[in-house]
């Protein structure tokens, strides 16, 4: 009873703003309470700003070499020191944010598109096609993800873009399974039968009714997966299967500087820290999103 | 006498499970005339919902399948019609409302979006007209502040309001037949009466034939003219509502009528029909109602009675002997 009164009061507030705004307000209210998530979102925002305004933030170009100042420790002029070619590490990390975030976002968007497509087909139509798609997912998931990405990159040839494609492929089953399981639940809902009973066709039912009701977990999983994708891209870069030097990709930078770890530790420390920070940021934010979007957490 | 619009002839629907074929609906016959309200009554599990889903072509398949008989809509057999044909009929010609108004609306869309979507499916109207038509429909089903309601989400509405919205959606394309599968079961009693009144009113105004499926004989008495009583996948009695209430000629119907609680009765215990509906296919021989019947005779265990009679049909030896 008290709840309905509360709802009534809340409804009046919401009225003026419209339904979408009210959903966002609710979401923001839940998200704001989660301190770690706010920190995570802050970190992510920080890196996004770095990437977008790299050209204005970075004091030097990516490949401005100066042999006279190679392997210099952090100083007022080179905040994070210089590497073996005398390049400014801070500038390279700033430009590296562009590469890492691009890989993270594009790979995840790719996986979401193909995973959702396959997952919806498998879940909605069931039967034979479901078996085929689900077994395909199982096969992909049977490989350790980094091993499968290496295999794909070795077929396509090592480059950052091919690493992106490989990471996208590896993550397709993650989203595919998630969407399939949601679709299996949603398609049994009565409003789907009701939609059929007024003469709606499969395509319309899928796009208008099933997908919008299946998408919340995909958004959460997507955020968490951006972190994994960035980590995988750095891993591939480190192994020489991703971005190639002199691209300032963080994993590639780690790999190129690893021989100086004892006498110039800042050359590996800062690219490594950048990877850790961005991954932690996305994970914290993803956890926060999950809690804020989870209807069971609402009181 | 108005014309027959929907006729179900010897319809058999079975579910194919791991244990073999289970007949859920076993050769039922009934017809609906234009502008008529027909009641279909029976306990849970006697095949009422399966019948309505069969008519709509919405049986979950597999495991469900129509294995025999015909469903004639304006003379056209739609029991095995193509999906594309059914899609044209659904909504436009035959529409349906469901038992659970709480779950029959999509939670992520507003009432307006869902209502206009239904109209748009079969008619191409400009956006302005769509909205005014949606508003008009909401007013027709007796919802106040229709304009604001269009922008609200299902969770902001009560059960009765949602059922009205469902009826508005079902009526959006002026169907000729409306199948209402226990439309009032999930609602509280005062709202039940309002919804029934609304359906009777729509029936009078739009001349849409209504098949009202329910387990509540009281509901049938309130709005229906003719009634079909189903038991275990078969029609056991059919006729005019008044005839059936005054002279039930099947012990099952009699039991159902006696089970309606009476406000003025001094009895402490309510009447119940002993036992429950047999599992489909479990009784191989004799009358399906025999194990629960108060008047059971020897031959009921071995022979299955036929549905006989003219305007008031029944499937029982008791009355066939008198005749």
Automatic annotation (TrEMBL), chain A:
GO terms for cellular component: plasma membrane. Signal peptide: none annotated. Belongs to the binding-protein-dependent transport system permease family. It is a multi-pass membrane protein. It is found in: Cell membrane. This is ABC transporter permease. InterPro entries: BP-dependent_transpt_permease, MetI-like, MetI-like_sf, OppC_N. GO terms for biological process: transmembrane transport. It comes from the Bacteria. Pfam families: BPD_transp_1, OppC_N. The chain crosses the membrane at residues 37-58, 103-125, 137-157, 223-243, 264-285. The lineage of its organism: Bacteria, Bacillati, Bacillota, Bacilli, Bacillales. Its main location: membrane. Residues 97-286 form the ABC transmembrane type-1 domain. Keywords: Cell membrane, Membrane, Transmembrane, Transmembrane helix, Transport. The keyword Ribosomal protein does not apply.
Automatic annotation (TrEMBL), chain B:
Pfam families: ABC_tran, oligo_HPY. CDD domains: ABC_NikE_OppD_transporters. Residues 6-257 form the ABC transporter domain. One of its GO terms (molecular function) is ATP binding. Keywords: ATP-binding, Cell membrane, Membrane, Nucleotide-binding, Transport. NCBIfam families: oligo_HPY. This is ABC transporter ATP-binding protein.
């Amino acid at each position: 009873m008290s709840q309905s009164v509360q709802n009534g009061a809340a409804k009046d507030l919401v009225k003026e703003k419209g339904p979408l705004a009210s959903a966002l307000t609710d979401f923001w209210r839940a998200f704001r309470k989660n301190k770690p998530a706010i920190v995570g979102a802050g970190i992510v925002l920080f890196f996004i700003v770095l990437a977008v305004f790299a050209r204005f933030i970075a004091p030097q170009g990516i490949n401005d070499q100066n042999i006279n100042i190679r392997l210099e420790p952090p100083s007022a002029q080179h905040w994070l020191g210089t590497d073996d070619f005398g390049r400014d590490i801070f500038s390279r990390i700033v430009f590296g944010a562009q590469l890492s975030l691009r890989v993270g976002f594009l790979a995840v968007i790719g996986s979401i598109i193909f995973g959702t497509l396959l997952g919806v087909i498998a879940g909605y139509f069931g039967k034979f096609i479901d078996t085929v798609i689900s077994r395909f997912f199982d096969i992909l998931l049977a490989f350790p993800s980094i091993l499968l990405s290496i295999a794909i990159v070795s077929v396509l040839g090592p480059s950052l873009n091919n690493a992106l494609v490989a990471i996208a492929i590896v993550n397709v089953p993650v989203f595919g399974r998630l969407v399939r399981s949601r679709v299996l639940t949603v398609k049994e809902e009565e409003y789907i039968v009701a939609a059929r009973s007024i003469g709606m066709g499969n395509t319309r039912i899928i796009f208008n009714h099933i997908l919008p009701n299946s998408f919340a977990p995909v958004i959460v999983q997507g955020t968490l997966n951006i972190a994994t994708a960035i980590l995988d891209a750095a891993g591939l870069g480190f192994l020489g299967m991703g971005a190639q030097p002199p691209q300032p990709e963080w994993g590639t930078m780690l790999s190129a500087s690893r021989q100086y770890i004892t006498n110039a530790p800042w050359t590996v420390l800062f690219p490594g820290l950048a990877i850790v920070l961005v991954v932690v940021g996305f994970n914290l934010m993803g956890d926060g999103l999950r809690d804020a979007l989870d209807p069971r957490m609402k009181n | 006498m108005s014309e027959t619009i929907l006729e179900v002839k010897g319809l058999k629907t079975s579910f194919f499970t791991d244990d073999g074929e289970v007949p859920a609906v076993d050769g039922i016959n009934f017809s609906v005339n234009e502008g008529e309200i027909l009641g279909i009554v029976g306990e849970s599990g006697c095949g009422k919902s399966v019948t309505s889903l069969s008519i709509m072509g919405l049986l979950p398949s597999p495991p469900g399948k129509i294995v025999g008989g015909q469903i004639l809509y304006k003379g056209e057999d739609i029991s095995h019609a193509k999906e594309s044909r059914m899609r044209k009929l659904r909504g436009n010609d035959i529409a349906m409302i469901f038992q659970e108004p709480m779950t029959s609306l999509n939670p992520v869309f507003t009432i307006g979006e869902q209502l206009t979507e239904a109209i748009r499916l079969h008619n191409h109207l400009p956006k302005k007209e769509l909205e005014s038509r949606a508003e008009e429909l909401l007013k027709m089903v007796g919802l106040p502040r229709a304009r604001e309601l269009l922008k609200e989400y299902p969770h902001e509405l009560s059960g009765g309001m949602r059922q009205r919205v469902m009826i508005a959606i079902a009526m959006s394309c002026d169907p000729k037949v409306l199948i209402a599968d226990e439309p009032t079961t999930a609602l509280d009693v005062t709202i039940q009466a309002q919804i029934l009144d609304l359906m009777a009113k729509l029936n009078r105004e739009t001349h849409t034939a209504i098949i009202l499926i329910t387990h509540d004989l009281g509901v049938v008495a309130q709005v229906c003219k003719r009634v079909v009583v189903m038991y275990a996948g078969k029609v056991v009695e059919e006729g005019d509502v008044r005839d059936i209430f005054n002279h039930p000629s099947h012990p099952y119907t009699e039991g159902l009528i006696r089970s309606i609680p009476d406000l003025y009765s001094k009895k402490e215990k309510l009447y119940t029909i002993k036992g429950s509906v047999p599992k489909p296919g479990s009784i191989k021989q004799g009358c399906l109602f025999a194990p629960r019947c108060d008047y059971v005779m020897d031959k009921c265990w071995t022979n299955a009675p036929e549905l006989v009679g003219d305007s008031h049909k029944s499937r029982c030896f008791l009355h066939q002997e008198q005749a």
